[in-house]
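In response to the reviewer comment on reproducibility (Comment 2.3), we provide here a single inverse folding case reported in full, input and output, so that an independent group could reproduce the run without further information from us. The structure tokens appear first.
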């Protein structure tokens, strides 16, 4: 089934900008410097990682047909004043100024970007071949660096003056190295920036996908026992002949035995959902519970009602014709 997107955008939000608010302002420069010392990161790693996250988001948004305009907007003086966490939302007069200047309906903002790293260092005894081919004992050094990437995102809808979404994503990158001395083992840090950039790009693309409906597979249980018609219907369903199975189930809805009739009505709810008719599915399942006491049918009614709510969200998210 097609599920609604995690984030619902207004239908008239067609021209959007992507901005970077994650860069620290001057008053947080000291905190950033301290953070770099204690978290094993280079001065450029956060900046490059944030750029990759924004590139990933912009790339994904440009694939979305609902937008007529997607552009990266380099805006000065909108840095994060609370380093590494969500800052207060941008003032709406500032959002409006940016949107008017660039003819936009709203903004996707990377509100903060931060990495924290920890190194795990150990040694173990190994044997190596010496110059004459003789195996000799040695001490091998191992280093593993775990880098946690934390990002915070907001979507500003300028026309309605409201924040559509606020989301935090956390991912971890693990790099490792080993060698016969600490210097060789420390090469675990080499290439870490590139790995952080790659994962950051994935984070940005995944956030761009959060505004798209997605397909998912669900399972449904149906009755296969009751009488000979149920057995035949089961075989028809197994070959994909659902309409043929439904013909037999429909016949059994008039069965004199209440248990069989209730099961047949429950199965008719299943085929109705398969055919996309949720109203009929709810009606069949409701009768199966109300008139025949099928408890499975009551749970199914709740499942169908929940799906109806999601289907309504999906209709709203679909582009207007």
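Designed residues, in position order:
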């Amino acid at each position: 089934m097609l599920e609604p997107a995690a984030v619902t955008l207004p239908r008239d939000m067609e021209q959007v900008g992507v901005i970077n608010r994650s860069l620290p302002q001057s008053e947080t420069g000291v905190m950033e410097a301290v953070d770099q010392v204690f978290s094993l990161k280079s001065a450029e790693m956060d900046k490059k990682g944030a750029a990759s996250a924004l590139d990933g988001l912009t790339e994904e948004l440009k694939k979305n047909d609902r937008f007529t305009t997607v552009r990266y907007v380099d805006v000065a003086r909108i840095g994060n004043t609370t380093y590494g966490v969500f800052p207060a939302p941008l003032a709406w007069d500032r959002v409006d100024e940016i949107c008017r200047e660039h003819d936009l309906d709203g903004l996707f903002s990377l509100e903060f970007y931060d990495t924290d790293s920890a190194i795990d260092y150990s040694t173990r005894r190994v044997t190596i071949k010496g110059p004459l081919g003789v195996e000799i004992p040695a001490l091998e050094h191992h280093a593993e660096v775990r880098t946690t990437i934390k990002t915070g995102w907001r979507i500003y809808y300028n026309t309605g003056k409201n924040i559509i979404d606020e989301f935090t994503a956390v991912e971890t990158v693990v790099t490792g190295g080993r060698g016969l001395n600490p210097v060789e083992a420390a090469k675990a840090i080499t290439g870490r920036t590139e790995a952080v950039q790659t994962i950051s790009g994935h984070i940005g693309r995944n956030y761009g996908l959060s505004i798209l409906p997605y397909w998912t597979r669900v399972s449904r249980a149906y009755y296969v026992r009751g009488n000979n018609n149920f057995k035949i219907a089961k075989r028809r369903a197994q070959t994909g002949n659902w309409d043929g199975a439904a013909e037999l189930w429909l016949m059994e809805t008039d069965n004199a035995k209440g248990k069989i009739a209730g099961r047949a009505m429950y199965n008719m709810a299943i085929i109705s959902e398969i055919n996309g008719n949720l109203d009929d599915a709810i009606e069949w399942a409701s009768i199966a519970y109300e008139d025949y006491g099928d408890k499975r049918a009551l749970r199914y009614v709740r499942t169908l009602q929940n799906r109806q709510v999601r289907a309504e969200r999906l209709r709203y998210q679909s582009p207007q014709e």
